[in-house]
Write a structure and sequence with these properties.
The chain folds into five domains: 141 residues, Rossmann fold, CATH 3.40.50; 144 residues, Succinyl-CoA synthetase domains (Rossmann fold), CATH 3.40.50; 155 residues, Succinyl-CoA synthetase domains (Rossmann fold, 3-Layer(aba) Sandwich); 73 residues, ATP-grasp fold, A domain (Dna Ligase, domain 1), CATH 3.30.1490.20; 112 residues, 2-Layer Sandwich (D-amino Acid Aminotransferase, Chain A, domain 1), CATH 3.30.470. It contains 23 helices and 26 strands. It is flat. The chain is 38% helix and 20% strand. The protein has 680 residues and is an alpha/beta fold. The strands form five sheets. The chain has a six-stranded parallel beta sheet, sandwiched between helices. It has a six-stranded mixed beta sheet with strand order 7-9-8-10-11-12, sandwiched between helices. Strands 21, 22, 23, 24, 25 and 26 form a six-stranded antiparallel beta sheet that branches.
Length: 680
């Protein structure tokens, strides 16, 4: 298996100059320093390095070689891969840059063609190599981290390098590191699948700038996240970030809100900074699982303790006071001047025994504990670290530490790391990491139908008609697909309009029908509350005048809907993930508040319910200040059906239902716009 040859090679050929100071020489040096021995240097001069033998071709190496690390010039890489293929090499790490990231797409296509011809799988080009600490394998220029349970998969070698450097500095154990660069062959999908079953990896840290394969990526991520935590940084969140992404990797980033939805659907944890990623990985590896969100803070300084408590509540933790029994227990050994409310302030007189006993006394009542030490030079912080570590070993309740400032407590931090108690730069970062773990433990169990390959088994159809669908036609189409619509009539003349109003029954709403008018209200194309025939005649004339110069085809007539909450349902197509469904407040609130929940479509009932509850305006739907609640069950049912439409009708580009009138019983669509994929 090629991926096994990457992480567990029997022999490695380093292809490129082996002269001292060159990248090939440095790679050989780092692999030898890491303890790997079966290395061979390959270059035109057959030059060896550091007692590693040299050859002028991989085919001339007489010992087993199943991986090549390539650092030769870009123009030579296809020939190097030819040589590797003939030698039976199964995997390659192409560190060499100068391909699609600088516009050399043809060169990247060529190396992929040669590799496929010989069955060679590779990472790169333009990558930073890989690490397998258990195999003492370090074909990378990045820092050698300690061994442990975190796998780092990074599209950017520099980002991965920061994580591995911090891992060495702060004692986070790494199982594997891989930088796949341009991802011309193997990418994050391959490594997510591999790491799902990797017993050496407990947590996966993933940095991506775009997702290869969209839904294929979701399938791989979903499977991995079902077995172990996956912490993700998705770069390119802003317009400037997306520009930088394009120049860096030559890849196209999709809309950030859709990425956010896709990651959430797959059970991954999205963070926005390397610090957040690092902190979460530390807690996942070192702390037992959290039962809930109740956290207690034990500190020797009131102010920083309060700041940590404030932030804990901001990020969703519950900083409640200890119960009476716990306070009595604390009073048995703590001085009276200590604060027992939470944070538990031991004051500057806090001791090793005070930290140990306090943490243990709180352990049964809380889901997680923070030992916070704000040190001054004269205090014995090492003793406080011993107390916290002793307590952590005597309870299953997760305990984390925040000992600071670092220049004073450096020895204590080293001690905490040696005993496996995760330490954080601040109390705020510590509680944020705990909140992330709590959210992961309590995340809803999504059943993501859109991620499966065989979800839609019915017959596909085309949207009715040709060109832009007019509103009456679109309403009829919705009705055929079991999406509730009100009674309506289309009228091309004033007389037909009056007749239609009578059939619907006053009061009514009349709207313009024209393929050239999308936003009807903006041009005076909607008249509400028409009570009689004369008003209907006047409304028709006014709308016809408002549409002067446009392709006016008539009006559509609806009953006036009263006492409804306006919501919206939307469908669009993301370049990475395909059909996406949106739900939020409708009417004028859509653009003002932008209170919208997104999912990659289709969604099942549980996900639809989660989307409804996710918007900030959800209390309006439940009913506030004596108002009746809306029919959320009917809304969830329609959201499920609506999300399935792009799979039955693959020529759907966009569909907007805004407003949808949500009633106390049922709902009806108030307006619809359908855009075909080939419409301009």
């Amino acid at each position: 298996m090629s991926i096994e040859s990457l992480f567990y090679p029997k022999g490695v050929a380093v292809v490129g100059s082996a002269s001292e100071g060159k990248i090939g020489w440095e790679l050989i040096r780092k692999m030898l320093a890491g303890g790997y021995q079966n290395i061979f240097a390959v270059n035109p001069k057959a030059q060896g390095a550091l007692d590693v033998p040299g050859y002028d071709a991989v085919t001339k190496i007489e010992q087993p070689v199943d991986m090549a690390v390539i650092v030769s010039p870009p123009s030579t890489v296809p020939n190097v891969l030819e040589d590797c293929g003939r030698a039976g090499v199964r995997a390659a790490v192409i560190i060499t840059a100068g391909f699609s990231e600088v516009g050399n797409d043809a060169g990247e296509v060529e190396i992929r063609r040669v590799a496929e011809k010989h069955g060679v799988r590779f990472i790169g080009p333009n990558c930073a190599g890989l690490i397998n600490t258990a195999h003492h394998l370090y074909p990378t220029l990045e820092t050698h981290p300690p061994a442990g349970g975190v796998a780092v998969v990074a599209q950017s070698g520099a980002v991965g390098g920061v994580v591995t450097a911090w891992a060495q500095e702060f004692g986070l154990g790494i199982s594997k590191f891989v930088s796949y660069g341009n991802g011309a062959d193997m990418n994050e999908i391959d490594f997510l699948r591999y790491l799902t079953g990797d017993a050496e990896t407990k947590v996966v840290a993933l940095y991506i700038e775009s997702a290869s394969g969209g839904r294929e990526f979701m399938r791989a991520l979903r499977e991995c996240a079902a077995h172990k935590p996956v912490v993700v940084i998705k770069a390119g969140r802003t317009q400037s970030g997306r520009r930088a992404t394009l120049s860096h990797t030559g890849s196209l980033a999709g809309a950030d809100a859709v990425y956010d939805a896709a990651l959430r659907q797959c059970g991954a944890i999205r963070v926005h900074t390397i610090e957040e990623m690092f902190d979460l990985c530390k807690v996942f590896v070192h702390a037992p699982r959290l039962r809930g969100r109740r956290v207690a803070i034990v500190t020797n300084s009131g102010g920083p303790g309060v700041l940590a408590a404030d932030w804990a509540e901001e990020v969703g933790l519950d900083v409640v006071e200890p119960g009476p029994a716990t306070k009595e227990k604390l009073a048995e050994f703590l001085p009276a001047h200590c604060a027992f409310k939470n944070p538990i302030d031991l004051t500057v007189e806090g001791t090793e025994e005070g930290y140990r006993k306090t943490l243990l006394a709180l352990a049964d009542e809380y889901d997680a504990l923070l030992a916070l030490n704000i040190a001054t030079p004269y205090l014995d912080s090492l003793a406080l670290a011993r107390g916290a570590c002793d307590a952590a070993e005597q309870t299953d309740t997760p305990i984390v530490a925040a000992f600071l400032p670092h220049q004073i407590v450096a020895a204590s931090v080293d001690y905490l790391q040696e005993r496996g108690l995760p330490n954080f730069a601040t109390g705020e970062r510590a509680v944020a990491a705990l909140a992330g773990v709590a959210a992961y433990e309590q995340k809803p169990g999504f059943s993501v139908s859109g991620v499966t390959k065989t979800w839609f088994l019915g017959e596909q159809e085309r949207l009715p008609g040709e060109g832009q669908m007019l509103e009456p036609e679109a309403m009829a189409w919705l009705r055929e697909n079991d999406i509730p619509t009100p009674e309506f009539r289309f009228a091309a003349t004033q007389a037909e309009a009056v007749q239609g109003c009578r059939e619907i029954g006053y009061p009514v709403v009349i709207k313009v029908v024209s393929p050239e008018i999308l936003h009807k209200s903006d041009v005076g194309g909607v008249i509400v509350g028409i009570e009689d025939d004369r008003a209907a005649q006047d409304a028709f004339v006014r709308i016809q005048q408002a549409a002067e110069g446009k392709d006016f085809q008539g009006v559509v007539i609806y009953p006036l809907i009263r006492d409804a909450q306006e919501v919206l349902l939307g469908l669009s197509r993301d370049p990475q993930f395909g059909p996406v469904v949106a739900f939020g407040l409708g009417g004028i609130y859509t653009e003002v508040w932008r209170d919208v929940a997104l999912r990659v479509a289709p969604v099942k009932r549980a996900e639809a319910e989660q989307m409804i509850r996710e918007i900030k305006s959800f209390p309006l739907l439940e009913g506030v200040r004596g108002q009746a609640g809306r029919d959320l069950g009917a809304l969830a049912d329609v959201l499920v059906k609506f999300s399935q439409l792009p799979f039955r009708y693959p020529d759907i580009g966009e569909v907007d239902l805004n407003p949808v009138f949500l009633l106390t019983e049922g709902l009806v669509v108030g307006d619809v716009r359908v855009i075909r994929q080939n419409d301009t």
